[in-house]
Structures are given as structure tokens and as C-alpha cells.
Amino acid sequence: MSAENKAIIDRLNKELWTEGNLAVVDELFTTNFVNHDPGAPEVRTIEEFKQWANTTLTAFPDFQATTDDLVAEGNKVAERWTVRGTHKEAFGDIAATGKQMTLPGMCHYRIAGGKIAECWWCYDNLSLLQQLGVIPPPEQGES
Fold first, then answer.
1. Over the stretch 60-113, which tens digit does the pLDDT of each residue have?
2. Contact between 125 and 37 (Cβ < 8 Å)
3. Where exactly are the structural domains of the chain?
4. CATH architecture of structural domain 2-131
5. Which of 19, 27, 65, 72 would give a disulfide with 77, using CB separation of 3.0 to 4.6 Å?
6. pTM higher than 0.85, yes or no?
């Protein structure tokens, strides 16, 4: 079961996050999917997730997802990932900056019936906003 569950996450990263195929969400997620993302608390359901994914992929058209670690046991999969992209369109209230971003993060998935039923996210929104120039980086102390 662990190998099959890892394959679901590999497919998610390849087909959704790297190739931009939004239709794969309907194949890989349960209809009652629940998203747990403190960075996007308004995104809870599969439909809201698809809208959020579309917004993300539109804002960062060269979006690339890389799996750094993938561990599965039973119906749970833990992933450490890195995403990269260039901010070329509006992302929420943030106008396009043309800046590149690199964002590491983690997801913990629960698989049910061969599909993603829940996902818990952890990533550094502050770092993303600093890379896009929305929030200035901390000042460097004098030596």
C-alpha cells in the first residue's frame, strides 16, 4: 500500500504542480477532500483547492515541484518538497513582481480508497512574501 500511496503523490506533483493539469485533481482527490492550510484557511474543499491551484499556477506559470523526501506508512504519506517559479501574474492581492521564488515545505496526506482525502500543509509564507518583495527582509546587523 505504501508504494501505491507514494505513486499518488508523485502523480500529483508531476501532473498538477509541474504540468499544470487541473483535471487530475478530480482523479486523485476524494469528493469530500479536506484541505488544512494555515496559509490559505479559506481553501477547505476540493473545489476551493482547484481554484487555489489554478490561481497559483497562473501566477507562477513556470511552477515546478520537487519532492525532497517521501515517506509512507499505512494510509499516510509525508512529503518534504521544494517549489520554484517566477511571479508573472497577480497572486491574490499581490501584483506580478517578475521575481523568482524558491519555497520549501511539507505536506502530510491521508489516503482513502486510493485517493487523497486530507492534506496538512506547512511552509514559510513570510519567506515567500520576502522573496516577492512584498515584505522587506530583516535588516542585517552591523559587524
1. 999 999 999 999 999 999 999 999 999 999 998 999 999 999 999 999 999 999
2. no
3. 2-131
4. Roll (3.10)
5. 72
6. yes
